[in-house]
Write a structure and sequence with these properties.
3 domains, 4 strands, globular, single chain, two-stranded antiparallel ribbon, mainly alpha
Amino acid sequence: MVLGPQPLFADQTCKAIQNDSSKEKNLLFARSNIGEFCKRNMFLRFLNSKDAAPNNCDSTTTQDLEEIVNRKGFSTFFDPWNLSLLSTSASRESAYNLFFGLWQRGMCHDCQNMTFYLSTPEDAQKLFSRPFSSSTPFEKLAQLRKSYESQKQNSSLKDAAVTGIFCAAESLFNMKSCYRGLDIIADKTKIVYINESLPYTNVDLWERFFGTKKYDEGLRYAALKLLSRATNGISAEANIFDDLIESYVKSGFSQADANEAVIDTMGLISNGGPNTLKRANFFEGYSGKVAALGYIANTLVYLDSKKKERGMRLYSYPKNVSTSCDNAKPYHFWNSAYLAKELKKMNFDDLSSVRTVYIAQIGYQLKREVGYNPGSAKNNPTKNAILTREAYDPAHQIVRTDLAYAAAGALFGVAGEKRQINVDKILIDLLSSSSAEPTITRKEAYNLSAAESYFIWRKVFAPDAALKSVLEGQ
């Protein structure tokens, strides 16, 4: 089936994968080709949100869906983050090129602020080939810290009732550790706004990277490495973890310090993903360090796409992590890895670190998809909206992929390369344990208490299956 240039009508909405919403059919699809399963659900979730999906999803090929996403998405998004999330080959290439400002100015609503001073990969090569000279003004770091200290805690993990629900399944001994761990994570992931601009989390990481120059050379070498891979081709064994390790060791770090620096680097990037450059720019303008961080962050999923096209492992994950599911969001893995590593440094044992970080990631999903916001049902139509969707809706599948990567990342944060981690199996285990609960109306969803929505959500997504999968060695 070849789709011509027909218009997209508002009523062309596929609210679920029609005639294919059963658990058994989804499991069969995932087991037979999990890469295609993830790709198709990424496309459908976007198209559903824009009321642009075809009427009959079953008869529309994934390739045709990709064409529709390209037509609809390129008229909607003009920033690296959202372009990357569209997950088409064309959108990822455009997101990559946007770093250099290769788009025509007429195609971008805010090109003056988004085209930067690097015009070509050759310009980047020149910049990254010499040591960085800029330093972060002290007042910038002071402003970040002041914002962190003064702004009201906005993490749902600080709500005693919420943490009580999350930690209730833990044993009496582990419950105390759960509360303490979630409190630490809430402080680290607190959302801070500077001048009501972009949100920052993991403030200690921003202070660490921009309060010293010790990471500069490692970042410079890494940016050069990724630039070479993007312009000259990429090998099957290439991955971001090894490239960063090599870069930090080359800059003078010990192997142990390089390992920690890599997880810290990826933890920092997980704050902004492909839009890291916008956040880093606050500290030094468009300096060499800012450009290097932004380039690394913006290139990850582009290299994922290039490797995927050639049947290779994804670039964004260590070589001991096996995955065919390219969800364009490596930050779920690396944020979990960073938080678990931090808890372990604070004398949490490996098991408690993994469990607590994963519980926090469940909290993130709940807040994002189910979370309570004040206001009437009319003014707050998205409260608990995930529970109003049909069973195995594409949005449900994306939540499952996020959970699978979060569990995998938490394990990597404490075990490193000592354990083989199979994300595909974690995702299939989540599907296998899931439940097709009856859908509810928007009004019913709005009236659910936090505890009611949480327990329904748990039945639908069976999040413990991912934790069990990683802790039992899969």
